[in-house]
Amino acid sequence: MAEQPYKAVLLFGAPGVGKGTQGKILGVIPGFHHVSTGEIFRALDKNSELGKRVMSFSSHGELVPNDITLQVWAEHMASQVDAGKYRLDKDILLLDGLPRNIEQANLLDGYIDPMRVIHLAASDEDAMVERLRRRAIKEKRADDANENLIRRRWDIYRAETQPVLDHYPSDIITEIDAIGTPAEVLQRILHDLVPMLSEQFGNAFDTTEAATKL
Ligand code: AMP
Known about the structure:
It is built from 9 helices and 5 strands; from the N terminus they run E-H-E-H-H-H-E-H-E-H-H-E-H-H. The chain has helices at residues 19-27, 37-42, 49-58, 66-82, 102-108, 125-139, 147-161, 182-201, 207-213; strands at 6-13, 32-36, 92-96, 112-121, 173-177. Strands 2-3-1-4-5 form a 5-stranded parallel sheet. The longest helix has 20 residues, at 182-201. Adenosine monophosphate is lined by residues 15, 36-38, 41, 57-58, 61-64, 69, 97-98, 100, 104, 143, 153.
């Protein structure tokens, strides 16, 4: 368990809606720290026991078991804190891809103070599937390499992940239209998050720290 809860914004949405893209852009903004469980898993040594076990799920579009997911994520967080990359008292954690089911949401309650849930919503599944296929070719991602796997990820999202929204109070959830250019979607997200960021920092924002991050 974390000694002090991580102040967090959850990036929520179906596969292909752009959580990773938006998370990476937002993560550059001083005061935000982006962490994606999918990225943490992809960075594991593929020849290690852990790496092989994770791949045995992710390469089939399945969720990695909850105990492994929470442990790997918690260790990653601790290393980010130790390295001074995520500052408990100053940064808001942008959590991308976690929680993905109710049990993870319950476990995560012991670690985070959820300030906002950004729900990137897209009704057009076919457009999202096409987006993922294009990305798979570019990034050589096994889990998005074929349409059946992508549809499987969507099925899991609907069955297990979407109900997680009910875990959080409705007044911290903002639904954002995920259809549009990355800049358009970013603008919608910032419209929601900037007031919260300003409230968090007030006039006390240290511009020298901002320069260090960039
Ligand atoms: P993503 O990059 O978020 O689409 O995640 C890629 C894959 O990593 C997923 O399809 C899962 O196999 C695995 N994964 C990422 N986050 C989680 C999570 N919170 N729980 C279980 N599996 C996850």
